[in-house]
Each structure stands twice: as C-alpha cells, then as structure tokens.
Amino acid sequence: MLTDRQATIRQKLAQSRQETLSSLQGLSETQWNTVVYSEEAEWRAADLLRHVTNAEQSMTRLIEVIRDGGEGSSPDFDLARWNARVVSKMQDKTPDMLFAEMAQNRERLWEVIDTLTDEDLAKKGRHGSLRILSIEEILHLIADHEVRHVNHIREAVN
After folding, report:
1. What's the 3-state SS for 100-137?
2. Rounded Cα distance, 151 and 138, in Å
C-alpha cells in the first residue's frame, strides 16, 4: 500500500506526464524542428524531448543509487556536457520512439517508487546539478523538469 507521500508524488508525476502528452503528441515535423534554445547550442523541440526522456531514466537510476546507500553523482559531474552528449547520441530517435521510451521509463519509475519507504524518501545524495537532494525532492524534480521543458516547447511552437 502506498504512503501518502508516495501517492502525492505519483499524482504529480501522472499530471506532468498527461500535460506532456496532451501538449506534444501531434506536433508536426516542422514544430519538432523548431529551435527552442539557442544560447550555447541549438536545441530543437525534439532535442528537448530527447533530454526529458533521458533525464527521467537517469534520475530513476540515481534514486536507486541513493536508496541503496550511494552518494549519487560524482562531485565533478558536468551536467551540461552530459546533456549535450545524450541528446547527440539520441538523434536517431523520433518523437514516437521517445514517447514509447518515456512510457517504459515511467513504468520503471513507478516500480521504484513502490519500493520506497518514508525513510528512503528522506535519504539524500548528489543530483547531477551537484545539489544535495532527498529522493523525495528528486522525484518532484522529475515532474517539474518535464513540465518546465514542455512549457518552453509549447511557447516556441505556438
């Protein structure tokens, strides 16, 4: 049985995913190729979907590491370099492929959440941003991160 904290987290994650799907499914190829960010490097809408897809998978693994007593990301982790490399490696994945991968990632995240105790939710470790966060904070960050990027995509394509 889920604790109240687990249920709250699951609800927030479900809501963020619903917002993602309703906002992004059905975008045209032109919209997927719209530049959303262009400061250091050009990130198109499809690149942000690649990034969000990988970020959830990576943060799920991070949660497992912290849950199992690890410190999290290494102190010299370079998040910008990681993100650029991942997006580059995922260029062959279409939005439909990414949506399918996101569904798999979310199923895996649900499995992990269901194993967490309140003690686990309080465990802290280093996130890729180098901030020390609790597992509970990382779970909320997954939802917030997804919504933030979806909002940026939505603004750019409209």
Report:
1. HHHHHHHHHHHHHHHHCCHHHHHCEEECCCCCEEEHHH
2. 20
Helix axes 45-67, 95-115, angle to 10 degrees: 20
How does pLDDT run along the chain (158 residues), one tens digit per residue? 888 999 999 999 999 999 999 999 999 999 999 999 998 789 999 999 999 999 999 999 999 999 999 999 999 999 999 999 999 999 999 999 999 999 999 999 999 999 999 999 999 999 999 999 999 999 999 999 999 999 999 999 98
Query: Structural domains in the chain?
Result: 42-157 (1.20.120.450)
Tokens of 104: 């798999």
User: What SS3 string covers 47-107?
Assistant: HHHHHHHHHHHHHHHHHHHHHCCCCECCCCCCHHHHHHHHHHHCCCCCHHHHHHHHHHHHH
What is the value of pTM for the model shown? 0.95
